Amino acid sequence: MMELNKFVANKARPLPVIVMADTSGSMSIDGKIDALNRSIKDMISSFASESRLRAEIHLSIVTFGGEAVTRLPLTPAHQIEQIENFTALGGTPLGAACTIVKDLIEDKDSIPSRAYRPVIILVSDGYPTDDYVKAFDALLNSERAQKATRFALSIGNDADNTLLGSFGNDVEAPLLFAHNAAEIARFFRAVTMSVANHSKSQKPNEPMKLEFVNDELPDDDLDIPL
Q1: Which of 20, 110, 114, 214 would be 122's cystine partner, CB 3.0–4.6 Å?
Q2: Strands 67-76 and 55-65, sheet pairing
Q3: Distance between CA atoms of 127 and 123, rounded to whole angstroms?
Q4: Spans of the chain below 50 pLDDT
């Protein structure tokens, strides 16, 4: 008689997604912080509804506005109950946020070795206001961040596009642009859909491509590669 435990399904492997979100004072203008708050709530509910047969999406959110704070420790998406709205306030301490994310991504308890390649998303509408260079370089040069899929979104006309462009490592779109609140939402929808599809793919550990769908915005109003 065969042993039943030989047929127990393999446990889903974590697929970590880390959002680094600029919540500095300038994000209060033109509906940017409201779009960010809505987009993150939509992302959480979408991730929570995904099947967990092969990969289980885990989400962490680190904001940097006035100070850098872990708003959501790395948590299985289906276990996230509620997240408070972020308020736009203060300067842009990107360096402090990079240190938090580097510590998280290197923490073997939070992200075990069996986890799939992490996805890190950086969104910002301004220039860093702290001494960020060492922390930024340390994050990008960490072994796990080098293997991670990294996306960067430049919001508005005052972001540090050189810095953000050096963060993203999607060959086809190292830096994406959002000129208004609607495009922030569209970027997050694309990331959400891409991660969801990636989690169900045959090879969730391959580098992830960002997928866009045509939705209510006409293409000629967008500065995002389709």
Answers
A1: 20
A2: antiparallel
A3: 11
A4: 1, 7-8, 216-226
d(CA 189, CA 92): 25
Pick from 83, 34, 31, 90: which is nearest to 62 by CA?
83
- Angle (nearest 5°) at CA 118 between 117 and 120: 145
Nearest of 101, 40, 94 to residue 64 by alpha carbon: 94
Output the pLDDT for position 215.
55
Written as six digits, the tokens of 196 are 């969801």
Q: What is the spatial distance between Cα 160 and Cα 41, in angstroms, rounded to a whole number?
A: 26
Domains of the chain: 35-120+130-208 (3.40.50.410)
Cα distance between residue 64 and residue 62, in whole Å: 7
Give 103-125 as a DSSP string: HHHH-TTTS-TTSPPPEEEEEES
Q: Give yes or no for a contact between 23 and 89, defined as CB atoms under 8 angstroms apart.
A: yes
